[in-house]
Design a protein that fits this description.
Elements: H1 17-26, H2 30-43, E1 47-48, H3 53-65, H4 77-90, H5 119-129, H6 135-146, H7 158-165, H8 173-183, H9 196-205, H10 214-223, H11 225-229, H12 233-240, H13 244-255, E2 277-282, E3 285-290, E4 299-300, H14 302-307, H15 313-350, H16 352-357, H17 367-374, H18 378-385, E5 389-392, E6 395-398, E7 406-407, E8 415-416, H19 417-429, H20 439-448, H21 455-464, H22 470-473
Parallel strand pairs: 2-5
Antiparallel strand pairs: 1-4, 2-3, 5-6, 7-8
C-alpha cells in the first residue's frame, strides 16, 4: 500500500483560553474570587480595583508631571525598609508534628506551634515552659505533647514514644510515666490521657473534695462505666450501694465533664464565608441583590490606555495584549454576576415557601428544574451553585442547600429530603428523654403525616444529622 496525502474537511469545537477562564470563574467562591482579582490587578497594569475617577485623575496628573526618564518602578528607601521589616516579621516557620528532639527548652526563642492550627499543643508547650524540669525530662515531655491528638488524648503508646526518643535519649519507662503524670496536671483537666476513662478520672481528681457526688462518680468511672453507658441503672445502684438521689448527683457530675478535653481548646483555622446574594422581602415581594463589595469591581485604567498610542512598538503590543485580557476578565465577571443572579432568582421563585416558613417548607428541587427555568445547562447550574452563599431570613446558606431529592407523599406532591431531615430533627427534639423515638417509630410518625419513608432512610437521615441512636439518647436519670 502506497502512502498518499488526503484532504478532509471537518469541524471541531475548541474552548479558547478566555472561555475556559470564564467557566473557571463560575465555580470560584467569593474568597477565591477576591484572590483572583488581587492577582489580576497585580499582574495587569490595565486593570484597577477602584471605580472612582478621582484616583485615576490623580494618577494621570502624577504621570504627566513625572519626567520621561523616570519610568523605574524602584520603591523609595522608606518603602524598602518597611517591606523588609514586614517580611522579617512574618517569615516565621510553621511547626506541625515534629521530632521531639528539635525542641530546645534552654533557648529563650522557642518556636511554638501556630496557634491557628495547633492551639492545644501550643498551650501545653507554654505550660511546660513554666515547669522547672531538666533538659532530659523536657525532651520526654515534648515527645508526650507531640503525641497528643486534637481531642486531648494520646494517640501513641508509651512504648512508641520511648522508641522515638532513641538514640538521642535512652529513657526508662518509669521516667516516661512520671513525666506523663506531670503533664497530665496541665490545663485543660484530663489532657494527655491514654483513654476516655483515664481522662474522666483525671478531671474528677481535679475537683474539690467536697464536690457533691464526687466519690460515687469516681467509683463509676473506675469500675462501672459500662453499666452507666448501657443505662443499667438498677444494677448500677446495687453495685454502688447508693440510692437514687446519690446516683443522680454522680451522673450529673459526670455529664459536666468533657470526654475529649482538648476539643474545646483546639482552635481550628476559621473558614470564612461571604454571601454573594442577599434575599430580602420588600413590599411583600422577595428581592434578590448581589452583595459584592464595591471595591472588588474592576475597571480599565485609562492612564495606560492613553499611553498605547505614544509607546514604543514593543510596549504597544504588550499594552494591547493586557488591555484585551482586562476586557475579557471584566466581561467574564459580568457574565458570572448575571448567571448568579439568574440562578438565585429561579431558586427564590421555586422555594418561596422556604423563605416564608423555613426549612420545613423546602420543596424537592434538582438542577434540571432550575436549568429548564433559566434555559441554562445543568453543568452551569452546578458550577455557579458551588460554594456560593445566600443571605436569607433563615441564615446564610449555600445555594446547593436548596437542591434535594423528592420523597413520595400521600398527596402526590412529594416532599424534600432536606425538609424530611428537618422534621426528624424536630421530632427527636420533642421526644421524652426516658423514652426516645426509635427509627421505626420515626418512620411511622412521618407516614402518619403523609411522608412515605422507609426505616433505613430514617436511619440514614438521622446519621447525616449526627444524632445518636435511640439507645444512646435514652436517659433514665
Amino acid at each position: 500500500m502506497k502512502p498518499a496525502l488526503q484532504l478532509r474537511l471537518g469541524q471541531q469545537l475548541k474552548l479558547t483560553p478566555q472561555l475556559q477562564n470564564a467557566i473557571r470563574l463560575l465555580s470560584l467562591s467569593s474568597i477565591e474570587l477576591e484572590k483572583e482579582l488581587i492577582s489580576a490587578v497585580e499582574s495587569n497594569p490595565l486593570l484597577t480595583r477602584s471605580d472612582s475617577l478621582e484616583s485615576q485623575a490623580a494618577e494621570a496628573a502624577e504621570a504627566a508631571d513625572a519626567p520621561n526618564d523616570s519610568t523605574s518602578d524602584e520603591p523609595s528607601p522608606e518603602i524598602i525598609e518597611q517591606e523588609t521589616w514586614s517580611i522579617s516579621a512574618m517569615d516565621m516557620p510553621s511547626s506541625g508534628r515534629t521530632n521531639s528532639t528539635q525542641y530546645d527548652l534552654s533557648d529563650t526563642n522557642r518556636e511554638f506551634a501556630d496557634t491557628d492550627q495547633d492551639d492545644l499543643k501550643s498551650s501545653l508547650l507554654w505550660q511546660l515552659n513554666l515547669s522547672n524540669l531538666s533538659q532530659q525530662d523536657s525532651m520526654i515531655a515534648c515527645a508526650l505533647i507531640d503525641a497528643v491528638s486534637d481531642d486531648g488524648l494520646m494517640i501513641e503508646s508509651l512504648d512508641t514514644i520511648q522508641e522515638s526518643l532513641r538514640p538521642d535519649l535512652d529513657a526508662e519507662m518509669d521516667d516516661i510515666e512520671a513525666i506523663l503524670h506531670h503533664v497530665q496536671q496541665f490545663e485543660p483537666a484530663g489532657v494527655c490521657a491514654r483513654s476516655i476513662q483515664e481522662s474522666l478520672s483525671l478531671q474528677l481528681s481535679s475537683k474539690p473534695p467536697y464536690t457533691p457526688g464526687l466519690w460515687v462518680a469516681k467509683q463509676i468511672v473506675e469500675k462501672h462505666l459500662e453499666l452507666l453507658a448501657e443505662q443499667k441503672i438498677p444494677q448500677l445502684k446495687r453495685a454502688l450501694e447508693v440510692d437514687q438521689s446519690q446516683l443522680e448527683l454522680a451522673v450529673e457530675l459526670l455529664r459536666s465533664l468533657d470526654a475529649r478535653p482538648g476539643s474545646a481548646n483546639h482552635n481550628q483555622r476559621t473558614e470564612y464565608v461571604a454571601p454573594e446574594v442577599i434575599v430580602r422581602k420588600v413590599n411583600d415581594q422577595w428581592q434578590v441583590t448581589l452583595a459584592r463589595n464595591p471595591t472588588a469591581s474592576l475597571s480599565i485604567n485609562e492612564v495606560y490606555v492613553q499611553m498605547i498610542s505614544k509607546a514604543s512598538k514593543e510596549d504597544t503590543a504588550y499594552l494591547k495584549e493586557q488591555l484585551q485580557e482586562a476586557r475579557w476578565l471584566i466581561k467574564s465577571l459580568e457574565t458570572r454576576d448575571q448567571t448568579l443572579m439568574t440562578v438565585a432568582r429561579a431558586i427564590v421563585t421555586r422555594q418561596t415557601g422556604f423563605f416564608e416558613q423555613g426549612p420545613s417548607a423546602l420543596r424537592p428541587m434538582i438542577m434540571k428544574d432550575i436549568a429548564e427555568l433559566t434555559e441554562l445547562h445543568e453543568s452551569t447550574i452546578s458550577r455557579i451553585s458551588n460554594r456560593k452563599y445566600m443571605l436569607t431570613p433563615h441564615g446564610v446558606l449555600q445555594l446547593k442547600y436548596f437542591f434535594s431529592s423528592s420523597l413520595s407523599t400521600t398527596d402526590g406532591d412529594g416532599s424534600s429530603s432536606t425538609a424530611v431531615q428537618e422534621r426528624i430533627r424536630q421530632l427527636i427534639s420533642e421526644e421524652p428523654p426516658r423514652k426516645p423515638l426509635s427509627d421505626n417509630k420515626l418512620g411511622l410518625l412521618l407516614k402518619a403525616e403523609g411522608i412515605q419513608v422507609a426505616r433505613r432512610t430514617v436511619t440514614k437521615y438521622r446519621e447525616a444529622l449526627k444524632i445518636p441512636s435511640s439507645p444512646q439518647r435514652k436517659r433514665l436519670i
